[in-house]
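Below: protein 1.
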Amino acid sequence: MSKATKRKHVQMEVLQDDFSLPSKNQQIVRVISSKGNNLHEVESSEGSVFLISMPSKFRKNIWVRRGNFILVEPIEEGDKVKAEMVRVLSKEHVKYFKREGIWPHAFDSDCVRGFNSECDIFEDKEQSENSEFN
């Protein structure tokens, strides 16, 4: 399989609307930072911080940024690296998980890159115009 074909299949897998719920051993985490060598430092809903690895099929095809939410699956053989990435969650995934009631409550108050619609600031134009004259 050529690199272009592989990239196309991986991107289609990530972008398609696969709204399957996480299994019992999977969990949702938030990316804190990138540590290099396809390792990312993440925070779980309980507040524990650990490293996850990015599988080779995602490397050079999918970009993970600070604040993204990721679905991970634990690995047993790791001492420092505790889990492996399964899927990067989009805004639609987050909305669906909230509707289904499986979204961790610890991440509800986070205003990360517009995931939570309650975080958007609404400013009334009339109030802002009147405040300029006061």
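Below: protein 2.
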Amino acid sequence: MLRLTTLLRETREHDEGFSIVEVLVAMTVFAMIAAGVATGIVSSLYLAHGSRSREVAIGLAQDAIDAARTDANLFAVTDQTTPTKRDGVVYTVKQVARWVPSAGSANACGAGGGGPLAYKRVSMTVTWTAGTGGSEQSVSMNSLVAPTTSVTAANLGTVIVSVSTASGAGNQGVSVSIAPNASNPSGATAITSTIANTDANGCTYALNVKPGRYDVKLSKSSSIDDGTSAGSLGSQTTTPSTTVTVTANQTAAANFNYDTVMALSPQWSDPNASTTAFTSPTTVPVTLRHKAADYGPYVVGTTAKVFPFTDGYQVIAGTPSTCLSNDPEAWTTANGTAVAPRNNPQTIGATNAVKAPVQIITVKLAGTADNALTATTTTPVSNSGDPGCATTTTYTFTGLPTGGTATIGLPYGTYTLRSGTVTKIVNGLVTIAFASGTPSVTSSTGVSTSSNKVMLDPRRTP
């Protein structure tokens, strides 16, 4: 028995197992090593996937370049963007093609120089997203592609037509006609070959054209130009035209800005009393201004179809081209500020309402039977700041309260007023029997009277 006890005691004293602390330390070290190994594996897989994606992108770019090089019709190689999916990854192939003339710089249609079209510079950019939530990656590749034969035969020329939208992008699908100039063809002859509609870059071409002067005209449904075409300079038109001169072994360019019309609904509105109702004259003109060019006048109540400039139009009541008084910015001012004639388009139904600033005035008719009124522009009072009008304009108001007080709206300027009774209206022409007296006007901000003249002043003291 004593021997057995001794053996058990010795066994307990020589126990060589692991403590709990040692186990925890070992597990921690193992976890750190495993995490590092896992991170390395993930990074290796990510790099391998990224490398694979880049190889695919390079292959797609190379395939696109090869397709451009082998295209029998170099005019068909245009800007385009094509998405494609490989191994679960979506790649976007963007092709940009620019003609380069023998003289000048590259552009979409090749109209940057005067020499013949020499070759095309084709640029491919392939983009994709690296993994879920990853950053966008891209590769690019460029090449010069020359036509297999000369674009135009010797001693003949090329007409390049370039059509851009308001944003600067090419206008595709525009119909183009080219014919000898009617008044002075200078050797030009009819073009018998078919002229294609403009491509994705807004370009089309007439090849092997005999030297001479040619008229180039555009047409496309619901489209209008910006008024800069030589054949319709200063007037927006749905069928713009210009004249080009073709010389031997050279290119002639016809450039247009042409886009889908923007429909505007012109209105008159007093910016200082926008909710006050007033009577409008029988003729209610509105002029639209873009930079230094005026278009119109258009009539309130009709739809004005205009070029969709991205920075919009200024809106002016009346016709400032013949009456500067209508334009608030034309008034001289020492202490005041003219009402800004800009009102950004506000969507109303399917059209945009553009409001031209006018002045509302209250007028007491002169005769007890009067029901009509005329306001005629007149010479401004000296040193008033009113720039005046080059031509005289008369605004006619009918249907006014008989012998009563009327609230009317007029463009800015200086007027003489007469009231009377309507005796006849034929084809819109109003005949009025005028009273002997002079209507009286209620003075208010922007409205002043002097020597039977009424001045409607856009300037306001800040």
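The longest strand covers residues 413-426.
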